[in-house]
Hints:
heterodimer, A: 364 residues, alpha+beta, CATH 2.40.50.140, B: 15 helices, 0% strand
Amino acid sequence: MVAVSFNNVWKDYGGGAIAVKELNMDVKDGEFVSLLGPSGCGKSTSLRMLAGLEHISSGEIVFGDKIVNTLPPKDRDIAMVFENYALYPHKTIFDNIANPLKQAKIPTDEIKRRVIDVAKLLEIEQLLERRPQELSGGQKQRTAIGRAIVRQPQVFLFDEPIAHLDAKLRARMRSELKHLQHKLGVTTIYVTHDQLEALTMADRIAVMNDGVLQQFDTPQEVYQNPANSWVATFVGEPGMSLMEMEMTRMDGDLTLAFGNKTIKLDLKNKARLTAAGKTKLLVGIRPDKASVSQLEIPGAFECQIYSRQLLGADVLVEVEFGTSRVRAKADTSFVGAVGAVCNLTFRSEDMYFFDAEDGKAIPH
Amino acid sequence: MASREIISYDKGVAIKLLKWVSPVFLGFYLIWALLPLFIMFMASFKDLLDAFSVPDAGDWAGVAMFFDFSPTFTHYVALFTENNFGEYLLNSLFASIGSAIIAVTLGSMCAYSLSRSEFRGKKDLLFWIISTRMAPIVAVIVPLYAIFRSADLVGTLPGLILAYTTFNLPFAIWMLKGFFDGIPYAIEEAAQVDGKNRFQAFMMILPLAAPGIGAFVILCILFAWNDFLFSTIIGSGGAKTLPAATKELVQPQNIDWGKIMAAGVITTAPMIPLGLLVRRYLVAGLTMGAVKD
């Protein structure tokens, strides 16, 4: 077990394709960190640089107190689970799991004992004589995890390991993986594009976009205090809605204006926005904090319904709000149809504020 | 898995006609392809008189004459006792298997590198490799002979192996590159993470290219085994192979048909099981990795 650091790491593929830009990140010993971002954001590249499967263009990667930049994968003492499992198709499940141990020249009887222990833990001991093509997706994935945990590595690297499983199995594997990591206590870096996986499993989340680390914090912080408008809209499902608004003075009082309507600010946010001194703002609101109604509500915004989707327990209503659209969760009793007019309300305490120019969150 | 039903909605006259025409065509084709082999096989067991007793045109009952003979092994025995065919058989074996092993060893390593690495001019290099096969052998045989002679390789088995390898290697590289392209890179990466170095990771995925390697080895052996031109020119003298030796049975004063037929059987027989094998390998190889499963 070891702490892992990225120090000013860049990855330049040449021809203007820069996958990772100045990545700085310190992962504590035994921590579960999730690298979260859309496809092509550089998260997988970062993981592969950690594994030694790709060279780094500049900067350094440190395991404990050792710089590993030039170490080949076999000397880094890592275990990796690949997105497509990457099992050895011509070997049995037993041999797949045993491969890292054989490589480490461990005696045969100990290999056997450890493989069976791992297989029991992952509930695949009845499959050990089969070959990968005879297994289901979930079983293959367990085998891949088994191959990773059979050796006690310094660091676990997961590259979207459960992305290809069906939704139900994925939900189960999330809790199992989290449990396993907690039990083994191995430093873990987990790449995913699924913000739910990151929120549910990680001790800390590193949100990446366009090769740049946007925010590196606990799931709670990333959700409640997103560093910028991009993180705010990426994390959370259904996603946060953003509206462009302006700060105006009205009768000597600071208010938010949208068109000819104004929103009264609570004291805390008023102080915060006064201190920031920005006039053009992006205002965010999460769907469960916005509400729509067809009743007359004083001070509400009158909007047209763009779409409605049943989520099961409630309805997600999307309304047109100026140039943007705002999502709001409503009770299933909400009858408004597409095209109908409804009233949108939200409280200023629930709003998120970002600078409209650079998208950065307005400091508290 | 989707169903394998072949959908056909067209019930026109042409389709119906084709249904009848194609078996007839295939029947004739089969006779055309197999009859010479059959006649060769039969004639190798006949003495000269029996071999040339052919019924008159239109005399279908006379076909029985073809089967009416007392089988003899004299031609086979004579080939090995008088004509030294044992040595030629060994030459054929060494030349074909030797060149196949060298071509497959170098070819798989080269194909792997070309499949996995990216570098400037890779496409040009690939084209250049296959372009060496574009000229017919006859076009290059004279300069090749001059080179081989100045290197003292003419009439030697290593010379013949080298000549076959020259022509098999580009083929090997192209064919095997396709197989390596079909093997996911992640498997090697997993092997490296498991503790293998780059070369060990390559050895790890080699069994996955086995259908390709198997098919290629057989095609390579077939090429060398059936070759006539290299054998008569580069191999002439010390490294004569079966086809070249068979040709020498045609003498100006006497064409020894019985022996020629027997030599034909000896040359053809070992290649038939190989031909059946390559079919299995090629089918397995060509479909492997074509569809993501």
